[in-house]
């Protein structure tokens, strides 16, 4: 079966995506759940040991507190309360912590330190799986058993003000709510005023039991200007005032005869030194928890707060409110909170918590009887029974108290070890799915197929001969199918139900097995053919020499792939790409110099240097081309200026890259260094930012409009104006003609105005493309169509990029124009070389935009540009597009460039597509193998997993680009003479 | 003729290499608190000075440098001034390249410049000694197959090795090992020095190995 290289490459990439998806499913453990949507019920609770069958025995102890106010301050770091800045800015809270009746703790949040998983952890007590980060965008209703549901079921009235994530997670749970969207990150006053304005009236009322306040302002300040910015102090003072208000009006007001009230100050996550969050650095995971209630003993002096887990809050609050603990909670209660209750009650609380944990242990670990914690719990339950026996006999001696304390300690140990056993359970992988997804079947096969097909795919025909038909009819294929199917049945029956691949329908699995066996047979026959060809003509290899540039491109690709094994290089991947790109530019510069200076020498110095030169000929393709293709003849009069422009291009590119690199500091180690974007967004430099945006947009227009039709030109200009007014409406930059400062709006109208033009340009481009394909095989029409599609994408990127990132877009277009004009065309780099360079540039621009391999840098506010509310599909598309705008625009430019090269062989598009797929497959597949090998690495969750998600998404984006390539290539095939 | 030239080169390279070692060892004995990491710039300039002095001496004695056409004092002085100018320019060039590679522009300028001085010493200074301040000759030597003597080849190899060494030396910087040699620009200078030493060893060996294939056009 013969297929063209572009089709072949796209097919391989798509199959690889399936493999990656399967791998991801196996790699990211599904959070442990006893059963997904069932809830703990009061009737399921165990009886207190040895109280017999009295009807009151199996009840939860009554609530300890009447009302609970939970103040959740987003991104409140532990040291903002317990450290020096707490002393300075939160004096009232600090006083309560040091001298008031309170208990303070440092709660450690588990990565990913992103708001939604953290809210889930706080309310369910379970550790959300890593994959929840991806689901952060579309927060569906929380079906799991949780504190809020339990409180509502128990008839408690809950009021919520703050981040609307809660409203989406718990719809209809709140008696009253006012959600604020968290996606306008630049706003840090309105979001909090929105919460505080309800406070006075709510505190006066008597009709609620639980009040939850989620303040977002501090988190937004962190995202804008970091933890050390001057905005943090006033915000902390504001929060202190809120706490003071609640405390004086509600908590400290002793009301006789009723239970005391409780105020809980907590945070979902901390804030890194750069002000972002998502990772696992100390300042990100350490958050404060302060329980304040008159029920507690007064403190005498500041103590260092003990460390607890964030998930411990859920069972503690549940028991304090007299609710059953949520089923999937892995936390253990904080005993200090119950210190003031009787020993019998304390033991009862621990018993309930232990029982819930042991149930969860039974459900999630098949070998639960071997766990230490389970055994310890059984023993302590028994001694609890003994103690109860003595207690009920009326024994009140010292012995009883001491014994009770011993039981308490036993319980606590049992809880700790069960909790940690459950947390460990999260680190388990579904190896079978991983292995199937990774090696045996899909990814490696595709990579090998791509590699083996290289000589054919890059040949002049750009056609790959897949011996699929003969493979399907061969005996080994059937044997292999049988073997694989048998293996699958064997593995699945022995592993049990915990494997995703096994839970798929059988027909699907066997189709997949047949497919992979067919590909394996194809692979083997291709390898055999390659070997026999290699053996027949060994001379072909020896005269295949590489230029320095080729060596660099190959070494760079291989070196980058190898560097992914190191966590530091994954964190600082941008350094690798900047470094390689720089070296590439220098190598290109050397190539240009060689070409132009040799020409000059030959012209000016004539014959006396002659003998030296001919010996240098024939070394590489570029040289061959340059000698056979006189640039002077081609360029005519302008040869001189062309030459200097060509010489200046790599240098200009270098300078441009250096400037863009200092625009956004990314990575981990140097991310805290001040960068240009911080300076621009400072608020004082709005004029500079506005000017920069204008200049960038103007440059974008000048560079893009050259090849568009007149209508598109006008649309583009209007669209770019719309982009500027959108940014101005949102409040990032200044309107020159409007001096009165308006309140920042959402800019929906302006953004939609731009969307209209984006769609218009894309539509006219697509129309041109179709016409060139169907009606006339006009190459110029097609080229213009492509270019219009490209300019539509540029306009969309301009809308989505933050104002300080617009220079990145301008730089991208500038480099593309110059390189295409003076380097790639003039130096006659072949399609493969051009593709690799495009890929490298795309990678570097991914990081120039401020992205990194950390989830925290994904700019989710992009998903709301031009939308009134959250709509899932466009939000995801826009976020993905703006994140991968750099690589995608470079890929798109590659299509435009390769298909506009008419003097070149027509197969260059096929070559480009093939190289592009190969370049993406190599690191992706290598990374999948590496991650499997490193799955017990210390940084697997904080460094390698986010990168894995990035790799998968990037492969998805590349697959989309490759399909576009294929489509264009098919076009070309039709118009081929 | 071949063997004698290679032998001369090997001994010259041995002297230069030993000068690098001396520049490391002697100050360690004489100067207090001298350490390659902590007083890195002192070490760097001591290596630079030693390599420069030994290079000038060795190539002056060997007479590899192109003979001056006129032996007037004026001509010699102008040659010297020109050489200094070239050296300074090459320092600035390396500095610019290093900054383009991502070195901070405003902070630690002295460190960055010291690195470029070292690179210039290891590459440009040798060019100045062997070829004189003649840019045309430099371009010829560093273009492909432009070498016209064993010295040109050795120049290519040592200069290439130094630059590649400095290039490779930048790789450990992002690693989070917190070692003293990861501080900017220590790993790069060490890389350049190690590369230079490797080049000094490799050049005679490579030339000896390939002496059959090497056919230089007579001058
Ligand atoms: Zn948050
Ligand atoms: Zn945040």
TrEMBL record, chain A:
Protein location: Endoplasmic reticulum membrane
Name this polypeptide is given: GPI ethanolamine phosphate transferase 2 C-terminal domain-containing protein
GO biological process, one term: GPI anchor biosynthetic process
Transmembrane segments: 431-454, 466-491, 503-528, 687-704, 716-737, 749-766, 836-856, 876-900, 912-936, 948-968
UniProtKB keywords: Endoplasmic reticulum, Glycoprotein, GPI-anchor biosynthesis, Membrane, Transferase, Transmembrane, Transmembrane helix
Species: Denticeps clupeoides
Region (Disordered): 606-625
Membrane topology: Multi-pass membrane protein
UniProt pathway annotation: Glycolipid biosynthesis; glycosylphosphatidylinositol-anchor biosynthesis
Ranges of residues in domain GPI ethanolamine phosphate transferase 2 C-terminal: 642-958
Highest taxon, organism lineage: Eukaryota
Family designation: Belongs to the PIGG/PIGN/PIGO family. PIGG subfamily.
A GO MF label: CP2 mannose-ethanolamine phosphotransferase activity
GO terms under cellular component: endoplasmic reticulum membrane
InterPro entries from the UniProt entry: Alkaline_phosphatase_core_sf, Phosphodiest/P_Trfase, PIG-G_N, PIGG/GPI7, PIGG/GPI7_C
TrEMBL record, chain B:
Bilayer disposition of the protein: Multi-pass membrane protein
Major localisation: endoplasmic reticulum
One GO CC annotation: endoplasmic reticulum membrane
Associated pathway: Glycolipid biosynthesis; glycosylphosphatidylinositol-anchor biosynthesis
GO biological process, one term: GPI anchor biosynthetic process
Pfam families per UniProt: PIG-F
The entry's keywords: Endoplasmic reticulum, GPI-anchor biosynthesis, Membrane, Transmembrane, Transmembrane helix
InterPro entries: GPI_biosynthesis_protein_Pig-F
Transmembrane segments: 12-30, 42-64, 85-106, 112-132, 153-171, 183-209
Subcellular location: Endoplasmic reticulum membrane
Protein name: Phosphatidylinositol-glycan biosynthesis class F protein
Gene designation per UniProt: PIGF
């Amino acid at each position: 079966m013969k297929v063209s290289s572009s089709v072949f490459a796209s097919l391989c990439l798509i199959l690889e995506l399936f493999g990656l998806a399967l791998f991801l499913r196996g790699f990211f453990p599904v959070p442990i759940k006893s059963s997904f949507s069932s809830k703990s019920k009061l009737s399921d609770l165990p009886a207190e040991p040895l109280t017999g069958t009295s009807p009151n025995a199996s009840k939860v102890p009554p609530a300890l507190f009447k009302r609970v106010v939970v103040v959740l301050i987003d991104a409140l770091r532990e040291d903002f309360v317990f450290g020096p800045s707490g002393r300075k800015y939160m004096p009232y809270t600090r006083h309560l912590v040091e001298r008031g009746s309170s208990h303070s703790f440092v709660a450690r949040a588990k990565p990913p330190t992103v708001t939604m998983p953290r809210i889930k952890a706080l309310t369910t007590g379970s550790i959300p799986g890593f994959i929840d980060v991806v689901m952060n965008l579309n927060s569906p209703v929380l079906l799991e058993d949780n504190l809020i549901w339990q409180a509502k079921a128990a008839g408690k009235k809950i009021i919520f003000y703050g981040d609307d994530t809660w409203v989406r997670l718990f719809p209809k749970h709140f008696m009253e709510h006012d959600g604020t969207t968290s996606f306008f990150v630049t706003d840090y006053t309105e979001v909090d005023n929105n919460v505080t304005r309800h406070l006075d009236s709510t505190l006066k009322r008597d009709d609620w039991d639980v009040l939850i306040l989620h303040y977002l302002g501090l988190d937004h300040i962190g995202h804008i200007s970091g933890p050390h910015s001057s905005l943090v102090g006033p915000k902390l003072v504001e929060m202190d005032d809120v706490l003071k208000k609640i405390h004086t009006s509600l908590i400290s007001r002793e009301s006789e005869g009723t239970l005391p009230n409780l105020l809980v100050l907590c945070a979902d996550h901390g804030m890194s030194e750069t002000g972002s969050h998502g990772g696992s650095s100390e300042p990100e995971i350490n958050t404060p928890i302060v329980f304040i209630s008159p029920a507690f003993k007064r403190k005498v002096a500041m103590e260092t707060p003990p460390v607890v887990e964030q998930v411990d809050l859920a069972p503690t609050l549940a028991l304090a409110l007299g609710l059953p603990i949520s089923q999937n909670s892995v936390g253990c209660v904080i005993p200090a909170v119950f210190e003031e209750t009787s020993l019998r009650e304390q033991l009862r609380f621990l018993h309930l918590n232990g029982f819930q944990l042991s149930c969860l242990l039974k459900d999630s670990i098949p070998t639960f009887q071997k766990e230490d914690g389970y055994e310890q719990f059984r023993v302590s339950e028994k001694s609890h029974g003994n103690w109860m026996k003595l207690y009920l006999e009326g024994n009140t001696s010292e012995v009883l108290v001491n014994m009770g304390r011993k039981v308490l300690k036993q319980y606590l140990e049992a809880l700790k070890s069960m909790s940690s056993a459950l947390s460990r359970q999260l680190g388990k992988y579904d190896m079978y799915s991983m292995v199937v997804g990774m090696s045996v079947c899909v990814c490696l096969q595709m990579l090998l197929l791509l590699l083996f097909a290289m000589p054919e795919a890059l040949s002049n025909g750009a056609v790959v001969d897949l011996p699929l038909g003969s493979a399907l009819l061969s005996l080994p294929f059937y044997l292999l199918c049988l073997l694989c199917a048998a293996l699958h049945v064997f593995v699945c029956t022995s592993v049990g139900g915990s494997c995703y691949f096994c839970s798929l329908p059988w027909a699907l699995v066997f189709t997949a097995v047949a497919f992979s066996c067919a590909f394996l047979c194809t692979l083997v026959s291709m390898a055999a053919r390659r070997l026999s060809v290699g053996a027949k003509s060994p001379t072909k290899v020896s005269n295949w020499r590489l230029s320095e540039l080729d060596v660099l491109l190959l070494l760079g690709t291989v070196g980058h792939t190898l560097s992914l094994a190191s966590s530091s290089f994954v964190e600082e991947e941008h350094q690798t790409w900047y470094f390689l790109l720089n070296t590439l530019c220098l190598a290109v510069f050397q190539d240009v110099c060689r070409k132009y200076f040799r020409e000059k020498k030959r012209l000016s110095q004539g014959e006396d240097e002659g003998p030296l030169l001919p010996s240098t000929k024939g070394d590489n393709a570029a040289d061959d081309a340059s000698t056979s293709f006189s640039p002077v003849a081609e360029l005519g009069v302008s040869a001189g200026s062309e030459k200097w422009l060509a010489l200046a291009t790599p240098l200009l590119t270098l300078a441009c890259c250096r400037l863009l690199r200092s625009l956004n500091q990314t990575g981990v180690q140097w991310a805290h260094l001040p960068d240009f974007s911080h300076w621009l967004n400072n608020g004082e430099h709005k004029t500079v930012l506005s000017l920069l945006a204008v200049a960038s947009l103007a440059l974008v227009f000048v560079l893009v409009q050259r090849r568009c039709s007149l209508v598109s030109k006008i649309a583009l200009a209007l669209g770019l104006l719309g982009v500027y007014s959108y940014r101005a409406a949102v409040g990032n930059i200044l309107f020159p003609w409007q001096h009165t400062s308006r309140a920042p709006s959402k800019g929906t109208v302006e953004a939609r105005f731009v969307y209209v033009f984006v769609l218009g340009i894309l539509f006219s481009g697509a129309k041109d493309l179709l016409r060139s394909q169907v009606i006339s095989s006009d190459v110029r029409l097609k080229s213009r169509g492509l270019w219009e599609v490209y300019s539509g994408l540029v306009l969309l990127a301009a809308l989505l990029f933050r104002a300080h990132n617009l220079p990145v877009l301008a730089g991208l277009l500038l480099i593309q124009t110059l390189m295409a004009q003076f380097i790639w065309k003039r130096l006659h780099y072949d399609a493969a070389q051009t593709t690799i360079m495009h890929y490298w540039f795309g990678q570097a621009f991914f990081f120039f935009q401020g992205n990194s391999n950390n989830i925290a840098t994904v700019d989710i506010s992009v998903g709301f540009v031009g939308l009134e509310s959250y709509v899932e599909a466009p939000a995801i598309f826009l976020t993905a597009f703006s994140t991968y705008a750099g690589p995608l625009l470079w890929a798109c430019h590659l299509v435009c460039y390769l298909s506009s090269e008419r003097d070149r062989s027509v197969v260059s598009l096929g070559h480009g597509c093939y190289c592009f797929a190969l370049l993406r497959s190599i690191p992706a597949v290598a990374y999948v193998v590496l991650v499997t090998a490193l799955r017990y690495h210390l940084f697997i969750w904080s460094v390698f997993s986010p990168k894995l998600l990035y790799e998968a998404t990037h492969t998805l984006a590349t697959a989309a680009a490759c399909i576009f390539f294929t489509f264009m290539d098919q076009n070309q095939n039709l118009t081929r003479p | 003729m071949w063997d004698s030239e290679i032998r001369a080169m090997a001994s010259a390279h041995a002297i230069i290499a030993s000068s690098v070692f001396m520049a490391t060892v002697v100050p360690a004995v004489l100067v207090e608190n001298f350490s390659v990491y902590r007083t890195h710039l002192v070490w760097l300039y001591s290596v630079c000075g030693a390599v420069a002095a030994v290079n000038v001496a060795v190539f002056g004695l060997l007479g590899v440098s192109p003979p001056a056409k006129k032996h007037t004092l004026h001509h010699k002085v102008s040659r010297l001034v020109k050489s200094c100018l070239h050296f300074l320019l090459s320092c600035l060039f390396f500095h610019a390249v290093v900054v383009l590679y991502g070195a901070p522009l405003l902070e630690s300028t002295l460190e960055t410049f010291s690195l470029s001085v070292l690179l210039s010493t290891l590459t440009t200074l040798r060019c100045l000694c062997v070829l004189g301040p003649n840019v045309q000759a430099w371009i010829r030597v560093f273009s492909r197959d432009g070498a016209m003597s064993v010295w040109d080849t050795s120049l290519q190899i040592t200069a290439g090795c130094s630059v590649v060494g400095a290039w490779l030396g930048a790789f450990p910087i992002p690693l989070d090992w917190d070692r003293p040699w990861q501080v900017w620009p220590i790993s790069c200078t060490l890389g350049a020095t190690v590369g230079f030493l490797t080049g000094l060893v490799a050049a005679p060996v490579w030339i000896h190995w390939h002496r059959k294939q090497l056919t230089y056009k007579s001058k």
